[in-house]
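Re: beginner question about structure tokens

> Can someone show what the tokenized structure looks like for a real chain? I only ever see the sequence side.

Sure, here's an example I had lying around. Input first:
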Amino acid sequence: MINSGTCLKIFASIAAIALFSSCKPKKLITQSPPVPVQTAPVQDATKPAPVAETDSDNDGIIDSKDNCPNKRGSAGNNGCPEVEAAEPSFNYKNILFEFNSSVLKTSSYIILDEIAREMKRYPNMMFNLHGHSSAEGSQTRNMTLSIDRATAVKSYLVTSGIEGRNLEAKGFGESIPLNSNNTEDAREQNRRVEIKKP
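And the corresponding structure tokens:
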């Protein structure tokens, strides 16, 4: 027969075993990350067919890129017509000379060089060179002087590469003054050659 002290020991041992077995470390349960669900790609709504852009002036440049959609033009000018430079008037009046001389004033060289450059752009154009004088001296002398002045301008232009057959030199003497002949400044303006188209 087991005495009560022994029973207590057995009971304490069983309780300790039960206690320790219930205190075992528990395994951590870990969850793996969720697997993304693969979905079928969303189909784009049916796109309408692209609308053909209009070219109102039929110049090959669509209206949205054409700065002049109602006028036929070129791509180089953004759809607008090419604009030609206006033809110069060639009505030059400031080709001046010294008193009683057909020698050009040096200030006239720059003007004549500019005129020659413009004339070269129109190689078939004819030009009139009109010589004039102030009122000092006789009419005969002034007529001769005006012709010599027109001829001096023609020679300068021919030397600059203008065809001589395109230039006609005429003298008008003192008959068409620009200004009155009352002052030296006014007379200087009258000693001139004007270039005009026929």
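Each token stands for a local structural state, so reading them left to right follows the chain. The mean pLDDT is 81.
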